[in-house]
């Protein structure tokens, strides 16, 4: 009797990475204003993580968390809400704030991904404890979630949205610095600023970390 085919032994990590990115891009197609956002957040996160001296395994896990950080928006969030050209109403805001928990439900129990659950669930916590979903504060927020929070916010600022134009890099950096010790881990903001000096024109592709 032939042995069951062990597909895991034949999969190249790059194949898995590309498969995940296709799924993420399918989500981004629904939101015309965030196309490419996930990849940029991953690249910025890894630039910060590399400057912080994270190990290869930590960088791989950081990359996975960054790639999947918004995947919960695929569950129960309409295109109208994603692309609304004005501030969300209270109901829509609640639905949007549920996306870290929905992402957690998608990956909880998956053997090779469940360890990144805290990263995905807590990337909207704030350094001062006013974030969501758990109102964690300063270093009680998982490190990878703090990194992705900074990368996510910076890319959102320098990208156009349905309700506002993009900021310049200089404007976004000034806003990030202003929010140190309130919204963001101050040390990670400093690493972001240093990373921007290293990458003045465009971010390199860090997907080989996966």
The CATH architecture classification is: Orthogonal Bundle
The portion of residues forming beta strands comes to under 5%
Radius of gyration: 17 Å
CATH class: Mainly Alpha
Domain HD-GYP: 12-208
InterPro entries: HD/PDEase_dom, HD_domain, HD_GYP_dom
Domain HD: 34-157
Protein name: HD domain-containing protein
Describe it.
The chain is mainly alpha-helical. It has a single domain (23-199), classed as Hypothetical protein af1432 (Orthogonal Bundle). Helix content is 52%, strand content 0%. The protein is built from ten helices and no strands. α2 (37-51) packs across α10. It starts with 12 loop residues before the first helix and ends in a 12-residue tail after the last helix. Mean pLDDT is 82; it is low at 205-210.
Features:
single chain, 210 residues, mainly alpha, Hypothetical protein af1432, 10 helices, globular
Write the layout of secondary structure elements.
Layout lengths: L12 H18 L6 H15 L4 H12 L11 H4 L7 H8 L1 H9 L9 H5 L21 H15 L11 H10 L7 H13 L12
Helix pairs in contact: 2-3, 2-8, 2-10, 8-9
Question: Gist?
Answer:
The protein is mostly helical. It contains 10 helices and no strands.
């Amino acid at each position: 009797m032939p042995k069951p085919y062990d597909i895991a032994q034949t999969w190249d990590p790059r194949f898995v990475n590309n498969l995940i990115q296709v799924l993420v891009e399918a989500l981004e197609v629904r939101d015309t204003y965030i196309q490419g956002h996930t990849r940029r957040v991953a690249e910025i996160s890894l630039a910060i993580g590399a400057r912080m001296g994270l190990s290869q395994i930590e960088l791989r896990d950081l990359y996975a968390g960054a790639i999947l950080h918004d995947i919960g928006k695929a569950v129960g969030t309409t295109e109208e809400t994603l692309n609304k050209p004005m501030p969300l109403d209270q109901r829509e805001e609640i639905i949007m704030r549920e996306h870290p928990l929905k992402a957690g439900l998608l990956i909880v129990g998956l053997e090779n991904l469940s360890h990144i659950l805290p990263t995905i669930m807590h990337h909207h916590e704030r350094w001062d404890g006013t974030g969501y979903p758990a109102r964690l504060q300063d270093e009680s927020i998982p490190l990878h979630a703090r990194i992705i929070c900074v990368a996510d916010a910076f890319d959102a600022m320098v990208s156009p949205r349905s309700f506002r134009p993009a900021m310049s890099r200089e404007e976004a950096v000034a806003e990030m610095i202003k929010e140190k010790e309130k919204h963001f881990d101050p040390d990670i903001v400093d690493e972001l600023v240093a990373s921007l000096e290293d990458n003045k024109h465009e971010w390199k592709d860090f997907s080989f970390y996966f």
